[in-house]
């Protein structure tokens, strides 16, 4: 490099300053993270699921569930939620809104888990309570007043 202002020493100094403020990328075996050995997935663990799950953990999804069955179950759960939304004095739009909410889907999935992935039992439980209580409706008016800022 030649020309005015192109001093190799200045270039090295400015590179060092940049590295000190913006960090450096270090490459090589001495700069790599040490990772532990891969632990088997709970279903692959010797002795089955129970040994891999500790007392503080709960398996809440079984990947072996058939996708088609799951989609049919979720459609039925959303239909129940839509019907319940319309029956509560709401319109068709209110029913569709209730069916499309994320908490309705989460409620359906939690109910399926609590029913040991038996869709029939889960749907029977959902008939009693197809739409979960909205978070804002979980509080009494007195609690809302006390906690408002």
From TrEMBL:
Molecular functions per Gene Ontology? transcription corepressor activity
Which domain of life, per UniProt? Answer: Eukaryota
What PROSITE patterns does this protein's entry cite?
Answer: ELM2
A GO-annotated cellular component: nucleus
Q: Does the keyword Transcription regulation apply?
A: yes
Keywords, in A-Z order: Nucleus, Transcription, Transcription regulation
Query: What protein name is recorded for this chain?
Result: ELM2 domain-containing protein
Q: Which organism is it from?
A: Oncorhynchus mykiss
The organism that produces this protein has a lineage beginning with: Eukaryota, Metazoa, Chordata, Craniata, Vertebrata
């Amino acid at each position: 490099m030649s020309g005015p202002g192109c001093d190799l020493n200045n270039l090295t100094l400015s590179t060092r300053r940049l590295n000190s403020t913006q960090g450096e990328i270090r490459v090589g075996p001495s700069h790599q993270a040490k990772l532990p050995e891969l632990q088997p997935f709970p279903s692959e663990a010797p002795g089955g699921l129970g040994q891999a799950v500790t007392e503080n953990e709960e398996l809440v999804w079984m990947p072996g569930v058939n996708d088609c069955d799951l989609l049919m179950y979720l459609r039925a759960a959303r239909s129940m939620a839509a019907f319940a939304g319309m029956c509560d004095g709401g319109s068709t739009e209110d029913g569709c809104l209730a069916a499309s909410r994320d908490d309705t889907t989460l409620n359906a999935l939690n109910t399926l888990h609590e029913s040991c992935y038996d869709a029939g039992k889960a749907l029977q439980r959902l008939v009693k309570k197809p739409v979960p209580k909205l978070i804002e409706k979980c509080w009494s008016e007195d609690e809302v007043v006390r906690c408002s800022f």
